[in-house]
């Protein structure tokens, strides 16, 4: 672990003996990388934390830039972290937008990500030529080593579509074992919509559901106590919400916007916190009209209302992902800075008392 990162670890003592710790994991310019972006976070069955990101080598732009996927690991709930290692890099083109999913039964860790051949990105891909591809790799040894990539594109892509990619961050497995991976599609008419790819056989085969709502983009979903899948989507000045009764494939005919969830049109984090008497939704985003003010919110009623919130970082901030940790605390990995949001990717850990 690099000394400057140790020095930048911050410990805050808040009221009621609550806790907030923060440490910057990826720094703009670190290791010769122009910019790190796009956080993904997961706790393994052994309790190891995996933090992934894009290493955008030459500039801060999306694919088709030269991008690799990198990772740091923590065995002590984020107090200390390993050095940065490269999880996947390609000789030509780039890979990016990592998302992580844990198979609860087997402990297998999945990393979904985009692969673009030279010149291919979400805004440059076209039907009938080389697509932007959805790849998956997996680890069976707590994130130490990773498999060769599997190309999911032939199973979930319509050849008439312009582009497809998996939303970055953290995804989940339903109570019945289904993998759900939110997907963004630019369709044959160049319209961008959210939908879910899903696997009912532990990732061996995949299907994709219909578009959820017009104009929606990156999204996150979670299963509520009654089995309903709630989808929370990037869609303008507030978040769009839809609900599914068939495990995240099809959704209510019309989505609704949650006026409490102000958003600058940015990827966000969503998770279910189910510990003892608590059954809560956690939501993180840049709660502002622009990319700033990274905030955690708590809902006690499946996202109908948000009873508590607290600002984690008031300055520039963008993408985030949130997960409950096995010790009852909460972990957030997010983009932040002092002048612009892509200066660092930071891990924050806190307890419910800090939010409430």
Count of helical stretches? 3
SSE order, one letter for each helix or strand: HEEEEEEEEEEHEEEEEEEEEEEEEEEEH
**Helix fraction bin:** under 10%
CATH architectural designation: 6 Propeller
**CATH fold field value:** Neuraminidase
How does the major sheet shape up? Answer: 8 strands, antiparallel
- Summing up helix and strand content along with how strands pair, one would put the structural category as mainly beta
Distance between the termini: 33 Å
Low-confidence stretches: 1-17
Q: Beta-strand percentage? A: over 45%
Mean pLDDT: 94
Number of strands: 26
Can you give a write-up of this model?
- The two termini are 33 Å apart.
- This protein has one domain (3-355): Neuraminidase, CATH 2.120.10.10.
- The longest helix is centred in the first third of the chain and has 6 residues, at 3-8.
- It has an eight-stranded antiparallel β-sheet. It has a five-stranded mixed β-sheet with strand order 10-9-8-7-12, with no helix packed on it.
- It has helices at 3-8, 153-156, 352-355, and strands at 10-13, 19-27, 35-43, 49-56, 67-74, 85-88, 94-102, 109-116, 133-139, 150-151, 163-166, 169-170, 172-173, 179-186, 192-199, 207-208, 219-223, 229-233, 238-244, 256-262, 269-275, 278-286, 292-299, 308-324, 330-336, 344-350.
- It is globular.
- The protein is built from three helices and 26 strands.
